[in-house]
Design goal:
Layout (H helix, E strand, L loop, with lengths): L1 E6 L2 H5 L6 E6 L8 H9 L3 H7 L10 E5 L8 E6 L8 H18 L3 E5 L16 H16 L4 E6 L1 H14 L4 E2 L5
Parallel strand pairs: 1-6, 1-7, 2-4, 2-5, 5-6
Antiparallel strand pairs: 3-4
Helix pairs in contact: 4-5, 5-6
């Protein structure tokens, strides 16, 4: 599996023309949508919010919604994966959800995807900004994807300057993960 990193911003997602799918972790108790789901909702002119308001999709744990948009690249296919509410979400529950998301990516049969671990901020001791939180989340996601879709090229968006040292550490610890030097 190849991993690349990038900043979580509108400009970054607009540049994702060669990525097949955007995996969005949607919390059941987060409205309006924040982070990457919020940016994707903005770029899809509120399409995700409309699904949420109409209760076609809630973001319940493991609940999936595939939104097919009209834009090229990652914005053309948005896979929303529900992670439930903050209450009761801990490191073990987060790991289970990440494994479910990895299987959903495998089922989508894509060769490239992009996501962000931001919605898991409060689920691991120290949060993803903490010294241990983000590497634990990365390791859980990359391990699960490595088993389900070893040929996947995955982009991880966030604050790249914070992601890079932790991703380098995780790539050294996991076999089969190659960290690319730049976003593209």
């Amino acid at each position: 599996m190849r991993l690349w990193l990038g900043d979580e911003s509108l400009a970054a997602i607009d540049a994702l023309t060669d990525v097949e799918l955007m995996l969005l972790f949607v919390a059941e108790d987060e409205r309006p949508l924040q982070g990457l789901p919020g940016l994707a909702d903005w770029r899809s002119c509120g399409a995700l919010s409309r699904h949420l308001r109409a209760e076609h999709y809630r973001g319940a744990p493991g609940e999936k919604l595939l939104y097919l948009g009209k834009r090229p690249g990652a914005m053309g296919r948005l896979l929303c994966f529900g992670i439930g509410g903050r209450e009761g979400r801990n490191a073990e529950r987060s790991r289970q959800l990440l494994e479910g998301a990895a299987q959903a990516l495998a089922d989508a049969k894509v060769s490239s995807a992009v996501t962000s671990l931001g919605p898991f901020a409060s689920s691991v001791e120290g949060g993803p900004e903490g010294e241990e939180g983000l590497p634990l989340l990365m390791k859980a996601l990359l391990s699960a994807i490595g088993r389900a879709s070893p040929a996947l090229r995955l982009g991880l968006l966030g604050r790249e300057y914070q992601l890079r040292p932790r991703a380098e550490r995780v790539a050294r610890e996991l076999s089969g993960v190659e960290l690319e030097r730049s976003m593209r």
